[in-house]
Design brief:
Layout: E1 21-27, E2 33-40, H1 46-59, H2 67-72, E3 79-83, H3 90-101, H4 111-115, H5 117-122, H6 134-137, E4 154-159, E5 167-172, E6 177-183, E7 186-192, H7 213-223, E8 227-233, H8 238-242, H9 252-256, H10 258-262, E9 270-278, H11 299-304, E10 311-313, H12 321-327, E11 334-336, H13 337-343
Parallel strand pairs: 2-5, 3-8, 7-9
Antiparallel strand pairs: 1-2, 1-4, 6-7, 8-9, 10-11
């Protein structure tokens, strides 16, 4: 299918251009289109933070250490937009997940199959570490030929807000979210994902000296408003949908959300997927193995989190059942880093 220009449907009323960013998006051989984004950063529009950051950068123009600010906003905007290739093995892993969930083999996922999704996928945890990785889903994944999408060309850039945009959309950041819209005969998926610790880069060593504390203060202020936008051609694989924290494995908590995440259907006709994440985020991908270990929470919590998924299950917990029950404030059978931190507070 020839991909037309990407249009994001108007999800909410038109955004005031002074509170928006315009994207110029091209997918495949379609014409360029202007997408107007109004990004809510928790009560404050990103465009407002962008204007403030610009004024701060102008005040520091030419001062030592200013290059660090230029690197933080390479295109002069807090919205860092880039196009990235799709995951080379997304189709193979998606096929394995679908096959596992489709227990009656009818080619569809029924309500009953979705309700049992967490238990079904948990059976694929062959090393019994309470997490499922792509290599457990497809043991010979390293020898599988990479996917060859019909159209892998996509470009996106931030341009000045002017005139009328082809479409407008409001996005609220901070939590995992998903929207699927159709415009101009093209399906588009928009994902919002929470930030990871690595998405907030540390203050550069070049700004740690006392004579550069003014630039350092601006750096620390600006980093709180940076947003990464990655445009990926085609649909997101099922593993990418379920792996909300992008650590390369499906944890118990993520498996529990499988029903809700997959309930709106399995899509293969998406033209482009847009990912919005606070911070300087890495492009979304489906790594073959676990890509990192979570480091949040107190020492005892991280020590018990043997699979590094950011949660401590009852099986991982080394204390008594009664101690676990008291720490598990929401009663979901998993200890989060927040619950662990709260245990040390009066």
């Amino acid at each position: 299918m020839t991909l037309a220009a990407v249009l994001l449907a108007a999800l909410l009323p038109a955004a005031d251009p002074t509170d928006a960013h315009d994207l110029l998006v091209i997918v495949g051989d379609g014409p360029s289109v202007r997408v107007r984004l109004k990004i809510d950063m928790g009560g404050k529009p990103l465009a407002q933070l962008d204007a403030e950051a610009k004024r701060d950068r102008e005040k520091l123009a030419g001062k030592p250490g200013g290059v660090a600010l230029d690197a933080l906003t390479p295109d002069g905007s807090l919205l860092r937009a880039s196009a990235v290739p799709s995951s080379p093995h997304a189709a193979a892993v998606s096929k394995a997940i679908f096959k596992a969930l489709d227990t009656d083999g009818d080619g569809k996922l029924s309500a009953a199959e979705l309700s049992a999704a967490d238990k079904t996928l948990a059976k694929l945890d062959h090393d019994d570490d309470e997490c499922v990785t792509p290599l457990e889903l497809v043991p010979d994944l390293q020898t599988v030929l990479p996917d060859k999408p019909a159209n892998a060309l996509v470009s996106v850039s931030v341009v000045p807000v002017e005139g009328k945009a082809d479409t407008e959309v409001v996005v609220k950041l901070g939590e995992a979210g998903h929207r699927r819209v159709k415009a101009g005969g093209v399906w588009v998926e928009v994902f919002t994902r929470p930030p990871l610790p690595a998405d907030k880069p540390p203050v550069p060593k070049s700004l740690l000296s006392d004579e550069r504390k003014e630039v350092r203060a601006v750096f620390e202020k600006i980093i709180g408003g940076v947003v990464s936008l990655h445009a990926v051609p085609g649909p997101v694989g099922l593993f990418g949908r379920l792996d909300a924290d992008r650590d390369g494995q499906l944890s118990v908590a993520e498996l529990r959300q499988a029903k809700a995440v997959l309930a709106d259907g399995v899509f293969t006709d998406t033209a482009v997927s847009l990912f919005l994440t606070p911070g300087v985020a890495k492009p979304p991908a489906v790594p073959l193995t676990r890509s990192f270990v979570h480091t949040a929470g107190p020492d005892w919590f991280r020590g018990m989190d043997r699979n590094g998924d950011g949660w401590v299950s009852r099986r991982e917990f080394l204390g008594t059942a009664e101690q676990f029950r008291k720490l598990d404030r929401n009663g979901d059978g998993l200890l989060s880093s927040e619950e662990a931190d709260a245990a040390g507070k009066p």
